[in-house]
Known about the structure:
By secondary structure, the chain is an alpha/beta fold. About 35% of the residues lie in helices and about 15% in strands. The chain has 14 helices and eight strands. Strands 1-2-4-3-5-6-7-8 form an eight-stranded mixed β-sheet, sandwiched between helices. Helix 12 links the parallel strand 7 and strand 8. About 50% of the residues are buried.
Amino acid sequence: MATSFPLTDNTFSTPRHTTHYWEAGTVGGPLMIFLHGWPEIGLVWRAQMETFASEGWRCIAPDMRGYGGSSAPSVPEAYAIREIVDDMVELHDHLGASPAIWVGHDLGSPVAAALAAHHAKRSRGVVLISVPYVPDAFALPNLLPLIDRKLYPFDQYPDGQWDYYRFYLTNFDQTISDFDADIRASLAAIFRSGNPDSVGKVYRSAIITRNGGWFGPDHHAPAVQPDLALWPQSDFDALVDAFRVTGFRPGNSWYLNDSANIAYAHAAPNGGHLRQPVLFINGEFDGLCDITHNRSGEGMISACQDLTVVNLPSGHWLPLERKAEVTEAVRSWLKTKAL
């Protein structure tokens, strides 16, 4: 019978940053570090952490900069990828600095990939979930050329599925006030399971500007119940409590650093090519990032020396929607690559 490892929470501080992180497993086990994205906290990885901890791994899931119990600076430039990678380097040193498996979802994926590119010796392997690696940086100017123009004709959808990203840049304060108007309702509305019938149709993120915001003229989320098939009730409550402290401004500020992020990506050794084994887990009906219905995976395919792609029937929230399948995809890849 496998040993159960409940998640414990810890805090680590340096003069430049404080990271709150969740941990499970044996301290002497090999490191697996899980990086969440928007708008999540480290608890999004509970299912994966509990399983891998029971199999001998030391699992770590930080609240990323601006989230949960970690530092949330007030200036947007504090959320450039370089700063966030440096947070992870400090955390990795604190954990002993043995080369780790880095797992990233959503905006955690660009961080995991950038760390592997800039600090290759810290990474034995990389798992990217939902958001593929863009070697020139996950930045709006680099995403636009990859849009499927059959689905998103330029004259109607100049920014395609990335229209929400443009809206953040042009109407930032409104995005914050709309999300913050009802934190619980916003998070319940955001975290919904994907719909296979959405494939080949205009995704909701493509019409944000047209609608005047995520929630249109109401400027607040509709009253919907959280999808407890995704977040366990206690974890969803913890997510809501965390956002009631930080609000959405820190997390949304990650989108405000395209120029700095592009410059940082261009400074990576070897042109940002990754020599470590890389696993990409793709959601087959993720209208934002699915690599099978647009060109968003092209840069990753050319920049990764040893790339494995696994497709799962899911929307964008893969670690929550397909808990067991994501775990099995990672486990199988680790075994195949002898990691």
